[in-house]
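Hello, quick one for you while I still have it in my head. Could you read through the record and tell me how the tokens relate to the sequence? No rush at all, and the record is pasted right below.
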Amino acid sequence: MSIVAAGEAWRVRRASGLKGFWTPPGDKSVSHRALMFGALSNGTTKVDGFLPAGDCLSTANVLGRLGVTIRFLNEARTSLEIEGLGLRGLKAPAEPAPLDCGNSGTTMRLMAGILAAHPFRSALSGDASLTRRPMKRIVEPLRLMGASISARGEGDTPPIEIEGAELKGIAIELPVASAQVKSALLLAGLQAAGTTRVKEPSSSRDHTERQLRRLGAAYRVDEGGWHAVDGGVVLSAQPWQVPGDFSTASFFLAAAAICSRSDLTITGVGVNPGRIGLLEVLTKMGARIAVTNQREVSGEPVADLVIKGGAPLKGIRVAGDMIPRIHDEVPVLAVVACCADGVTIIRDAGELRVKETDRIAAVASELTKLGAKVGVLADGLAIEGSATLKGAEVTSHGDHRMAMALAVAGLVAAGETQVTDTACVATSYPGFATDLASLAGEG
């Protein structure tokens, strides 16, 4: 086997290629939003293709403590129903303990926007990793809207304490493009008096905006790129079919691109323009990828991707507006860069220093152990290609995307690579090792 799970470690060996057909698990970002919008809608929301991973279950558990009834309809927990409570219909938690967001920044930031408009006290906390992540960019604009909210940890980190209030719409320009911050403010604006307008310096993923339109909110994009939502418009429950998660598929896409004998078809994957930056980057590097069977499902674009290995890859520069579209994929992009001719430069990615771990430092540290030549920049990485990778023991630093990227590196490294601290992968994709092993041929 090319990858074997042994407790909280994986043993990975060289693979000839990824072959066959594979459908990714449900999109994590869309699964979060299905739960939240279902809770804020009037009526019963049916969801199929839900991702029952740790982060999404954190959102379900938080909403459950706020009075929302969520019924799982199958043993795999991929189908469920949500009994909506309507705008500002959530109930105060019966227990004073903080609402536990686990490792999920999406849960914490978007729920802060929702709870800011609810007339009761609440608190949001999480695991050791999440409580190190700064929340100032959420707290300050919600205060401007009228919420009493504060991040009590050192350096504006969680727990977040909220005293909900009657909110008023504001206009705010975000200093950094962030789908989580933008979504939190639009969700708060949905419950506020007047109009809330948000502008980003560059585009980020638009899952929230698509669903505001689909569910009947008064949402629009005004002249100058301002995202605007009018408060108080009732949402009507609609069924959801969650597409396959592109961020999860990206690890298989990258692995197929760097393993010479790959012939892989990824079916039913979401191709939201804000999410497929890695697809565009890999194509520019020379990877052979075809996008087929394009369609729309529950407001989201979906397609099949066909990847054939063996194409020569070249290093490129990745920066600017592309970075918000590949935040989750930078670790695995760095692995691909090790296999390309020339140097790959990644800039404007300073935001990665405050993810689950400092991803810039972690990528450099762990790929260097495998023999890669990686330079750390203030806001990114410089990776020298055509490296001869050799198996070694590496660690995820508790970051699920690091763990999966290092497994992909192991598929092209000589000998055996051992990836430790892999339990974190349960937050997004518990079945990763099993699926990768089933698709990876022997070296």
About this structure: DSSP finds twelve helices and 24 strands in the chain. The first helix runs from residue 28 to 40. The CA atoms of residues 264 and 334 lie 21 Å apart.
